[in-house]
Task: structure prediction
Amino acid sequence: MRVVVMGCGRVGARVASNLAHNGHDVAVVDTDPRAFRRLPPEFPGDTIIGTGIDEDVLRSAGIESATVFIAVTNGDNRNIMAAQVARMIFDVPEVICRIYDPVREDTYRRLGLTTVCPTTTVSAMILDHVIGAVPRRGLED
Result:
């Protein structure tokens, strides 16, 4: 399957590398050419310098044949805009968008975007650990 990943930070590079390693056709888009250093030297995919909200940049990344678009930059607005472009203009079947703001996550999930919110996920994991690790006062036998 063709996958376009916008953002080559730690998450984007890891996702792109794993997908490519598993035989998928991957393109990574980032505004900073130095970001591509996070990819392994043997990365077989494409690297495109530019912003993922630019339709020409997305076309050069192969979005017209993509089955998945993943937006994982550090900016919620950029991720949301690029996800909407991928969904509405290029009709990409699966669009995944990282959003740090939990309020926005819920709004965009209701609009049909698959969202991932590290703020909510990590908070829940910490709370589960703390609540599970600390005995409740007054409940001892």
